[in-house]
Amino acid sequence: MRKEIKKALLLVLVFLICFWLPVGFRRFDGAVLEALHLIRWYAREHVLLCLIPAFFIAGAIGVFVRQDAVMRHLGAKAPKAIAYGVAAVSGTVLAVCSCTVLPLFAGIYRMGAGLGPACAFLYSGPAINVLAIVLTARVLGLELGIARAVGAVLFSVVIGLGMHAIFKHEQDDRGPVAALPVTPEGRHLWQDAALLVAMVGVLIFANWARSGDVRAAFLCCPGGLNTFEVEGRIVSQSEESITVETPTGRRQDIPSGQLQSVGAREPGAVYNRVHQARWGIVLGLLILLGVMIARWSSRDERREWVSTSWGFAGQILPLLLLGVAAAGFLLGRPGHGGMIPARYIEMLVGGSPDALLATSGLAGTLLESFLRSTWMFWTNFAASLLGAFMYFATLTEVPALQALLGAGMGKGPALALLLAGPALSLPNMLVIRSVIGTKKTVVFTVLVVTMATLTGMVYGALMG
């Protein structure tokens, strides 16, 4: 009877939602379109080249990697210096976003990695991305790039140690991990490592970011006093304006009256050569990978590999797409608003509370002095929380943050968003919950947001 009552209540709730659905309201219709745009963009840009290789890598970890090696370097009883050192630097070779790293995290955790090192890897994978840190330094300034790199390394270790300390009793009582197939006697550890290196190489080079063709400088934002730069290719040009498409797909319209300069951008000979040759490199790695798999693995292992990879895809992909849709609906894409107006976001992460006071009508009230005295905390907390829930693909946080800085965002909140954003997202949280449970996911999220808030406050005070 109780089950039928719950079902009836659920049906009533669904009916009321459908009955009062605000179709026809511009913001709601725009938010729905943003959700669809983000899903389409994600499917085009990340499923084939990011997630599918990541699923196969996760499956390979579960089949080819020796459990004793995982336990020796990342296990709960491994020496902390080794475990957290390996986990903390993993992001330097993985140009992955907060979603692409999930299959890899699930793979090493289920093969016996300790919760602390696994969470350190989960954070470091997308956060300590060499390409993203270099791009941050070049676009947003050397100081912010260095602060991001140092903060991310320390974050991964502190968050991992925090998760280990909080859930130490559960780690000690953790049941037996997944059993590994017996490794054939003829295959050595270096051969397992070579298989994984080849697959990681495919993931990295297939997603080698396109460099911009031009750098355009123009006057931007309130009063037209700030010089703003955008890199990409010119897709249209007239006497009135030019339109530049960035490597992330965003289009920037620049009126001719605000345009200061347009010049060719050369990112570096080596970078360009790698970008031009990336598909040849990927093809070579795939051929090498095929030869190694054919010679070094058994038919049963190959079947188990495909089955394990498919299991990860079935568990993770539906939750990711649902989370991407929700993030697009609520927050939109960089440069496009969702249900939450962009001006509210900019108002909460600005360098001063003036915009918030003026909009809310609190100027001149008793709350004004309170807001001004605690503004550093609230603006960094808002930036951390925004970054934690909004989805940023690899490298896209930089142009998004560039726009927010142009709108008046402070340096402290900028760093807070950089430290929380790439490592977390709403889709990411949904999948993490399915791997380690609700309680651990909440604690992990709280640790990331808290650390990002405190670091942003310290950085803002030092640079203020």
Give the topology, please.
Layout: H1 2-19, H2 26-63, H3 67-74, H4 80-89, H5 101-110, H6 115-127, H7 130-140, H8 142-166, H9 168-172, H10 189-206, E1 214-220, E2 226-237, E3 241-245, E4 251-255, E5 259-264, H11 269-276, H12 278-296, H13 299-331, H14 342-348, H15 354-360, H16 366-389, H17 397-406, H18 411-420, H19 426-436, H20 438-463
Antiparallel strand pairs: 1-2, 1-5, 2-3, 3-4
Helix pairs in contact: 2-5, 2-10, 2-13, 4-6, 4-8, 5-6, 6-8, 7-8, 7-17, 8-18, 8-20, 10-12, 13-19, 16-18, 16-20, 17-18, 18-20, 19-20
General description of the model:
The protein is an alpha+beta fold. It folds into two domains: 28-184 and 297-463, no CATH class; 214-266, SH3 type barrels (Roll), CATH 2.30.30. The chain has helices spanning 2-19, 26-63, 67-74, 80-89, 101-110, 115-127, 130-140, 142-166, 168-172, 189-206, 269-276, 278-296, 299-331, 342-348, 354-360, 366-389, 397-406, 411-420, 426-436, 438-463; strands spanning 214-220, 226-237, 241-245, 251-255, 259-264. A five-stranded antiparallel β-sheet has the order 4-3-2-1-5, with helices on one face. Strand 1 and strand 2 (226-237) form a beta hairpin. Helix 2 packs antiparallel against helix 13 and helix 7 (130-140) crosses helix 8. The longest helix is centred in the N-terminal third of the chain and has 38 residues, at 26-63. The radius of gyration is 24 Å and the shape is globular.
